[in-house]
Amino acid sequence: MNLLAMSIPCWLIPLLVGLISAILAYLLGRLSSGNNSDGNIDEWKAKVAKLEADLEGCYATKMNLETDLSAAKSSLASSLAGATVVTLIPFDADAAKAVFGKKIKENDLKIVEGIGPKIEGLFHNFDIKTWKDLGEASVEKCQEVLNSGGERYRIHKPTTWPKQAKLAYEGKWQELKDWQDELDGGK
Fold first, then answer.
1. Who's near 106: CB < 8 A, 6+ residues apart?
2. Average pLDDT over residues 116-136
3. Mean pLDDT for the chain?
4. Residue 113: CB partners within 8 Å, gap ≥ 6?
5. Roughly how many angstroms between the first and final C-alpha of the chain, as a whole number?
6. Helix, strand, coil proportions of the chain in percent (round to 5)?
7. Helices marked H in 82-116
8. Are 129 and 105 in contact (CB under 8 A)?
9. How crowded is the C-beta side of 38, counted as CA atoms within 13 Å?
10. Neighbours of 125 (CB within 10 A)
11. Which of 82-98 are b and which e, b meaning 16 or more Cβ less than 10 Å from the residue's Cβ?
C-alpha cells in the first residue's frame, strides 16, 4: 500500500474523535443548562421589573420636587414683592475728615453732638450701633436708652441725635458740622 494512504487514517482518527467529543460536549452543555437558562431569564426579568419600578419612583419623586420648587419660587416671589429694598450709603472717610479736620471712623456715634463714649456704650447695649440705626430711632427711644444708664444720664436731651446721626449716615458732613456749631451741647 501506498504510504500516503496509510497516513490518512492516522490523522483522520484524532480529528474525528475530537469533532465527536466537541459535539457531545456541546449537546451535554445545552441539555444541562437548558433548565437553568429559563431560571436565569426569569431572574433577569425580575431584576428589570424592579429597576423599572425604581425608575418610575424616581420620576415621581422628581415631579414632586419640581412641583415643590415651583411652589417655593412663587411663594418667595410673592413675599419679596412686598419687601422693601434697603440701600446702604457708602462711607467716605476723606470727605468727613475734610469737614471735621480729624479722622472719623464709620458708625462712630460719638460724632453726634452730646454723645460720648459712655452714652455710646448705652446705645450699643440697645443694639443701636450704627448711624443708620440711631437715625431711625425715635427721640423717645433715645431717652429710654439714657434712662437705662441711671440718674446722671437723664439730664441729656437727645432731641437732635437721630437727625444728626441721619446726616452722618447720608454723608452730609458740612450740613452736620454747621448744625453742630449752632447747637449747645447736643441740644
1. 91, 93
2. 92
3. 85
4. 160, 164, 180, 183, 185, 186
5. 144
6. 75, 0, 25
7. 93-100
8. no
9. 4
10. 12
11. eeeeeeeeeeeeeebee
Q: What is the pLDDT of residues 59-97, one digit of tens each?
A: 999 999 999 999 999 888 877 776 666 667 888 889 888
- Whether residue 134 contacts residue 107, with contact meaning beta carbons closer than 8 Å, is answered with no
Q: What three-state secondary structure class fits 74?
A: helix
pLDDT, position 76:
86
Residue 36 pLDDT > 70: no
pLDDT in tens, 5-27: 556 677 788 888 999 999 999 99
Residue 11's pLDDT is 76
Q: In the numeric block, which cell numbers belong to residue 177? A: 458740622
- Written as nine digits, the cell of 165 is 446721626
C-alpha cell at 132: 443708620
To which residue does cell 419640581 refer? 66
Distance between CA 97 and CA 114 in Å, rounded?
19
Contact predicate 117/142, CB 8 Å: no
- At 83, give phi and psi (nearest 5°): -75, 150
